[in-house]
Amino acid sequence: MSDALRAAELAVEDKQQLAAAAQRLRLPELSADIRFADSKKTLAIPLGPLEPLAAQYGIDSPVVIENRSWRTRPILQATLPLYSGGAIPAQQRLSAAAVQQAEAERALQADTLLTRLVQAYFGQSLAERVVAARQQAREGLQQHLADTRRLKEQGFATQAQQLQVQVARDQAEREFQRALNDQDSARETLALLLRSAPVQTSTPLFVLPEPIAAREHFRGQAVAAHPQLARLQAIVAQSREGVRLQQARQRPTVFAFGQYDAHKEDATLVEPDWALGVGIRYTFLSGGRSQQVAAARARSEQAEAALREVRVELDIAVTRAYAAMSNAATQFTLLQSAIAQAEENLRLQTLSFREGQATSLDVIDARTALVGAQVARAQAAYQFDVALAQLLEASGGSGEFPRYAELPDRIDVQ
Fold it and tell me: Can you tell me which residues the record assigns to a coiled coil (predicted)?
C-alpha cells in the first residue's frame, strides 16, 4: 500500500475517534481531587455577655483558637452539562464534518494514486512497444546492410550506399539502446509505485473506438461525485459550525454538580460532607469575542468561494481530458492506416532495391517511416489511456478505469 494512502486512512481514523469523543460530551465528568496539605485554622470567638466573667479568670475576648495539622482531602466531584448554549451540538456536527473531509481526502489520494499508477503501468507498456519497434528497425536495417554488401560485391551497389546503410543501422542501434534504458526506468518506476519487484504488464495499451459517453455526462458526474467537492463541502459545514460554536460561547451554560468528601474526618468546619446542586456560568467580558465570530464567518465565506472555484476547475479539467482522449483516439485511428501503408511501402522499396530499381536511401526512409508510425501509434494509445484516467479522476470515477479497460470492443496495441 502507498504510504500516502496509508497516511490518509490514518487521518480518517483520527477524525473518527475525535467524532466518537464528541458524542460523549453530554455525559457527566467525574474527577477526584486529592490533596495532602499542612493547614492552619484560626477561630476568634467573642464572649459577649460572658466577657466580664471570663476576665476574672484571665481569659481575653475574643477567644482565639488555632488548629494546625496535616490533612488528607480526597474530594470526588461530578459535573453534568444541562445547557451549553448550543456549543455541544455544534462541536458534534463539526466533528462529523471533519470525518467527511478526511474521507474525501482519502478518496482524493486514492484517485491521484490510481492515475499515477495508470501512467506508470501503461508507461511501461509503451516503453516495451517502443523497444519492440526499435529492435525490429535495427534488425531490418541489419538485413538491409547485408543485402547492400552482397549487391556491392556483385557490382550493383556502391560504397556510398553501403555507408548510408551503415550510418542508418548505427543510428537504429543507438535508438534501440535508448529505448532499452527508457524501458528499465519505466519498470523501476512501476515497481516503486507498487512497492514490489519489477512486474510484467498483462493489459496492453488500448483505445476504445467509440466515445465512452458524452462530455456532459462526465461534467455532471464531477458535480455529483468528485471527492474534492465533498471535501470542500465538509469544510464549509465545519466553518458554519465554527460560527455557531463561537456564538454559543457568548451564551450562559447550565450544569449540575455533585461533591462528596471521602475523608470527612479531616474536613474543616466550613467544608460540607457532600453537596448537590445546579450552577450557571456566564462570561460577561472576554477579549475579542466579536472578532472571533467575525473570523469564523470569514472562514465560512472563504470555504464557499473555494467550493465555487473548484466547480469551475473541475469543469475545465473534464473538458481538457475529454478533448485529449478524443484527439488521441483520432490520431490512433489515422496511424492504423499509415502503418499499413508504411509496411507496404517498405516491402516494395526492399524488393525494388534488390532488383536495382531503388536506392538504399529509399529503403532507409521507408523503414524510418514505418518505425515512426509504429511508435506514434503506441504513443497515441498511451495518451488515450492516460487521458481516460485523468477524465475519470476529474469526474470522480477513477474506480471505473478497470471496467473500461476490459470492454470487449477495445483495440489493443500488440
Answer: none
